[in-house]
Amino acid sequence: MSCCLLEFCRVQELKTVRDFLFQSQKTDPPEDKNQTENELSWDTSDWESAWDNNDHKGDDATTVEEEGAGQSITWMQDCVVSLSPCSDLLVVAREQKAVFLSAKWRTDDSGREEMTLAVSWSGTLSTEEGECVSSVICVPLASQKRSSTGRPDWTCVVVGFSSGYVRFYTELLNEDPVLRLKCRTYEIPRHPGVTEQHEELSILYPSALVTIDGFSLFQSLRACRNQVARAAAAGSDAIQPPPLAYKKWGLQDMDTIVDHSSVGIMTLCVFDQMKNASILGGFHASVKGSPPAMSQYIAVGGGPYTGFYYAVEGSSQPLLSHVALAVASKLTSALFSAASGWLGWKNKNEEDPAQKQKPKVEPATPLAVRFGLPDSRRHGESICLSPCNTLAGVTDDFGRVTLLDLARGIAIRMWKGYRDAQLGWVQVSEGRGERESSPSAPLPRRHAQFLVIYAPRRGILEVWGTQQGPRVGAFTVGKHCRLLYAGYRLMGVNSVTSQGWQLHTQQVCLLDPTTGALRTVTVPFHLALSDKKSERAKDMHLLKKLTTILRSRDALESLLSNKNAPVSCLTNITRALHDSLKERDPEAVDEALLQLCSSQLKLLQLYTDIQQLHSAADTDTSSELDSLEGIEEDLSRLGPTLQRYAQLTSRPSVSFAQDSPDSPLPARAFLSQLECTEDGEVRVVRGADTEWNQLGSFLFWGCLSGESPLRRVCDTLQQTGVSPQQLLSLLLSVWLHREKDVLKKPEETVRNLHTLLITLSNMKGAVEESWDPQSVSPWWQQVRTACVQSHSAAAALLAALVAHYAVKASITSRADSKLQSEWEAVSLELEQWAVCVRQLEDVLVLQTLLWVPPPQGTAGGATAQCSVKTLLEGGRGGIADSIAKWVFRQDLAPERLKEILQRREEKEGDDNSEQSEQRRLLVAVCRRFPDSLSPDLLFAHCCWEYVVQWNKDPEEGRYLCWAVEHLKLVSSPHIQLGISSMMWSTFIVKRFSAAAFLMEKVGKAPKDRLCRRDVGMGDKAMTSFLGSCVQLLQILMEADSGVEEVPPPELCVEEVWCGAEGPASIAELALEQRGVHYPLVQHHCLLASLLYAAMTFSLRVKPLSLFDSKGKNAFFRDLTSIQLMPSGDMDPGLVLLRKEVNPDILRRHLVCELYSQGLDLRAEEAMLEVEDKDVLGSQLLVLTGQRLSYSLLHSQSQTQPAMELLARLPPTLCTWLKAMDPSELRCPMVPLSQSSRLVSRLIEILPENHGQYSLALHLLEAVEALTTED
């Protein structure tokens, strides 16, 4: 109940704000070489005073040094700072720059939602040359909607500049610099006689005071904001702002004015009116019948130290016609500019400084000072008006804080030792109900004023009661903070719209630039009472509050919900309250409170008993082990799979400590999940899964792990009346949830689970005595349902095995007790369990495979969680679909998968490698699902999975290639045909047509940018895509040809999984597809081959132009439709041209190209088909000369023997070799043995009478000489 300083917000990115505002100082002092580039200058006076201050010693000084290293912590004192009263916008400005920080909500490390202020805009606000920001205020404007609850509609930032401009934006009001901006908003009058104050914005200049009517300003700002929205939507930024009404007073009779306060309209009483008239007019002065209304203004500065001005209402108001307003709206991005910044909306014609002319400055109305506080040596620095407009705090250059009574115009209190002080006010209302309990009419609520003084020289924040009250609070806060006090609330509120509103505003905030924390001062009302009664008032306040709370059941509920209260304390308090209520008159006792006490006592006793049982040293020995005979064989059979499953699921993972199942269950959580009914029985209330599992762990985990006497625990729970069905649900939830702990000791936990199941099933109300043997037991059906729905495959299987044995023993005992054999009931119930166990074994093997981690560097992804229920709901293809997703995650090549499936009938080897284990697990799954995972179904699902993944990322052309490879491995042409058709129509044809139209448009293989724009993939990926299209269409044609030869396959499913219901599998959908039109597929395949060749060899071709109109119209149609196809006859002109071309020329060109590529062996094969050997010999002679020229003249590794050989060659041959150009060869570096063989072939081809035969002989000698030298 004392004064406190509470953090409600934190400012983010303060270093970014500082660096932006002080960019010009980063490189100013070149002599500071030891500073880093982010450091600013140090203020050594702060360090020296910090060492001398006794409040900061040792570690504190070290902390300040560490936190302040590399940055200046005094930078905010040089900035203009303003915080919106709603705390949703903070403005920090310096010189021409400003930064806007808006409120955002984020979740901290502990999961709590907290408010932060983050940078939303930063830039330059000044538009005139040399002007700087001198004052800023943030004015929140109230919403005009009827549904508003008090939050502002938007916030207008009003900025005053040294040039005299005040911009939200408004035009020139005075040519002197703006000293201070202040605002006054509507406050609800406390008493009927209090004058209702009007809203107002006041702007102080060195010799003038401008006041703008709040209502007029509010309407103008709303109108201009709407104009900006419409102008932005129309793509323009020209608006016509409406005129503003304002008053301009020339404050006289003071030497200097640095700050002001507009107190508002005041009306004098008759005596004061007559007194003033007599003083001003003398003995014969006339007095008006009604006192005039006057606006009071207080100015501080020098000569006098404080001046009081009074302006009589009713004077004419000039109209400001040239107004350029700007509204803070981040949505008007079209209006962002360096000149206007975040606020900017101005007329473009007025943007150019050369064209813009300053408007006429209206003259000020002289206003003489009525009286003042003369003190020739004292100069005022700031004034802060109280919320009730009756008091004001003034700071001066002597380090004093003076409290003024504005009604009497006198100083009533003074504090000294507060140099550079910053002031604020806190108004506190009396709590509701404290004065409403009076027997007479309820008294009005009282209000108290507290003055908040921040002394930066001492680093202390003080709270003082006014007018003559003591200091009620003091906080050590640091020496570089800023005290932010707005003194106003929302603009646009009146007595009608404020009805029912809750104005969420902070009165005083302290901003710490070192941590970014925003803290507010909270003061209890009782601290405003006098010194003698303050302690008693505090005690009375507490007593009243406690009495009020304890009279309701909220007290007990809030006490029981306390997470830190010990159980013994809760029990004692509840019992004391219960006994106290019992002793009272029954008619005066709240029955609901008494019943709450008794029920909570019962639950607390149950909580204590369970805790004591879990801490007991003795445990029960199980006597129902006879019915578990045979389960050891099942455990040994499942042992390897369970062990591998446990290894795969025990990988480290991140979890929160409070979510750990081993964390103790608080009494609060226990009481929140249990309740007592009117019959006195306990009922469990199902809450969140985490809380439900915690309650189950608290009740049963000690029994399952063998650390608690499970029979005594069950007896205790049975005595409370909890239904066996709820206990069974809790037992199964903890068993399935703590699977990892169960698998650590499976044999022991299985025995304890069996004992618990038998004990719970023997409770009254568990298994009905009148259970019809022909039907299924609801009790055991609950166990089956939990196992079937669980994703914990191993724990569910173990629970099903235990329940199976328990059911078998129970039915046997029932049959023996009735002396007859209930064969129908035995077969029906046990058949259900046999199917369930088989399904869970299948799921365990499948889940073990799915848990295998993918290799590093693959796409990976989350491990699929499966259960019997999800597999049944996934349809007949659900199992194959989950395996296909696993194959994709493992990046398993199609050939590798085919190899594994071919070995599924072979015996497992002893290889323990990771790939071998992967193969063994996959083979084991395939053996358990012989029908659902037949090769064709698995390849079909893998094909579909890969093409789906390719569609998500078309740049991965390998995915589509592997999809086609999987499709090739499908043996059934019916399934091949259907899947190919679905792939083409669903994923391929759209991109294929886009690629064709793009190549037709550019007339060549398109570049990477065009491919990405039109087809959605790069040029390399598009080449791979077109190659896959060719293969897909070929598969489609082959499948269509083979459909008639093979009957469609029958899709089967395992007997235990025949109840699967859900979407049809890919194979079933494939068999439902219609047949395709073969010529149309062939037509598309021709186009795909053409596109693929054009992309591969970078050909210049327009592919669609090579087809006639029928061929073009047939493209990209549904492959099942019958289209008009081209006749297939070749163009006669093309046939004639081909006849004119000599094919021997093409053969000779092919031979030369092969030799140019260095493919001599293939060239020799193609040479056999050439008819004109003489011409070919001449061409090859030139090619041989180019090779030899490269070896002798152009090679980088020229040897001395080669140079000597060149000197010995005939001059004719040397000249001829020098004329050769080896750059025409595609592969000039060819072994000399190949060149020697080529010259030998030349000698054979050329006849002896050929003109170049002698040249060929010289070449042969040169090559042989070179070969000998090597």
Automatic annotation (TrEMBL):
One of its GO terms (cellular component) is cytoplasm. Residues 726-1140 form the Rab3GAP regulatory subunit C-terminal domain. Residues 75-484 form the Rab3-GAP regulatory subunit N-terminal domain. Residues 25-68 are annotated as: Disordered. It is found in: Cytoplasm. Belongs to the Rab3-GAP regulatory subunit family. This is RAB3 GTPase activating protein subunit 2 (non-catalytic). The lineage of its organism: Eukaryota, Metazoa, Chordata, Craniata, Vertebrata. The gene is RAB3GAP2.
